[in-house]
Write a structure and sequence with these properties.
disordered C terminus, DNA-binding, Arc Repressor Mutant, subunit A, Tetracycline Repressor, domain 2, 2 domains, mainly alpha, globular, homodimer
Chain lengths: 223, 223
DNA sequence: GCAGAATTCAAACAATCGTTTGAAACTGTC
DNA sequence: GACAGTTTCAAACGATTGTTTGAATTCTGC
């Protein structure tokens, strides 16, 4: 059975990490918020880094399993035929937004995750790479099959841009206040907004780099 | 005259901050890389926070002046007529990418900046807000004039998404390795790729939230 | 209700952080 | 070349960090 202290620490850490960052959050802050003793972190997790890894793994493993399950369902229904790009985007980002929409904890975690993609810290990047390896391989394959005419390099960039937009969509309520007053309390609306932006970007005409190869049609659609 | 030590510290700090983050970079690392004494930072800047602020202000003030100048030029040429959305996007993000393209120092700074939008640290957000206030006001006004039919809230979100994509485009060479081997050495190609993605996203049909108000046309274009 | 394992606790650990100090070295001026 | 002002330097400051320790406490199976 999961120790009570252990999960209280995980919850407290999740909340504090998103507020103060990885280095800015101290073990004393975490254990105080969790009503636990300072030594409890090292007892239950071994080290601060291991705790942080546990915070991510607790939800990320499940999240990526959901993404793969969503893709499985689509591919089974398609019976070998290529999927529509829109379906793939919706399944990947839809699962993500849905997790953020489902609960306050999910939202906290997604904000944390959004910030962490650009985290310089080496140990974070290494276990993120491990955690994402399978999901990325599956989705890349599905996209390449769905869009055989789009150069793979181009698509990787676009997927990267999409993840950037997603990251800001979730984590960015703070940075967004720069732009003006905004309502970020409705996950359904956020999902609709983000999805239509992403599909628009994904379907945009290929940049001139590639268009040179197909000079005739003046604006070739990517999709 | 700018002290030699002072600018050596700024350069070293810029490089180290992008590698190790704000908290992960220590004054001892910075002064060692700058071949300066540890106390030099506090002598020339007053504190670590003031140094970080100086690192950002040195390039950010100039960058935002360029953005405003670019918008001024467009508006002068248009003689009171609304600009095309594409022109506005290109002038804002074009100036940004161009700075990254111009030099290795520019690229380093842009990666640092990209990471900092999601920085939790309070003092960073406060001087970023100050530094961006004028630029944001000008570009928001230009966009609202160019797209009177797009709800302002919707546009703010899209601008936010665009900044997310930009952030990843610049800072994300690291996270991008997750997705597969990529060539990020050609700023021209990056500019073309990003711009076509952004315009695609900006021009995407409005999400259903707004579309309900205009039920008849099944896919209303935002632009 | 007792032995043994698991957990909690207060206290201290060494290391590292940003900052301060006061003397030394350098700079340009008369 | 002596002086005042600026800059550099080695050394130390108190505070805070993650981690460890060993005893006290609680839980578990018999």
């Amino acid at each position: 059975m999961e120790s009570d202290t252990r999960s209280r620490i995980l919850d407290a850490a999740e909340n504090l990490l998103v507020q103060h960052g990885l280095d800015g959050t101290t073990l004393r802050m975490i254990t105080a918020a969790a009503h636990a003793n300072l030594a409890a972190v090292n007892y239950h997790f071994g080290s601060k880094e291991a705790l942080i890894e546990a915070v991510f793994r607790r939800r990320l493993t499940w999240l990526n399993e959901q993404r793969i399950a969503a893709l499985d369902a689509l591919e089974t229904a398609a019976k070998g035929a290529p999927l529509k790009p829109r379906q793939i985007v919706e399944s990947y980002f839809g699962v993500t937004i849905r997790m953020a929409a489902a609960s306050a904890e999910g939202r906290t975690f997604m904000r944390l995750l959004g910030r962490t993609y650009t985290e310089p810290s080496e140990f974070v990047r290494s276990f993120l790479a491990e955690e994402y390896a399978e999901v990325i391989a599956r989705y890349k394959a599905a996209f390449f099959k769905a869009l055989p005419d789009v150069p793979q390099e181009e698509f990787i960039w676009r997927f990267h841009f999409m993840m950037g937009a997603l990251s800001y969509a979730i984590s960015g309520a703070d940075a967004l206040r720069l732009l003006g007053p905004i309502d970020d309390t409705d996950p359904e609306a956020l999902y609709a907004r983000l999805m239509s932006f992403l599909i628009g970007g994904l379907r945009a005409p290929l940049p001139e780099i590639h268009a040179q190869a197909v000079r005739k049609p003046r604006a070739k659609r990517a999709v």
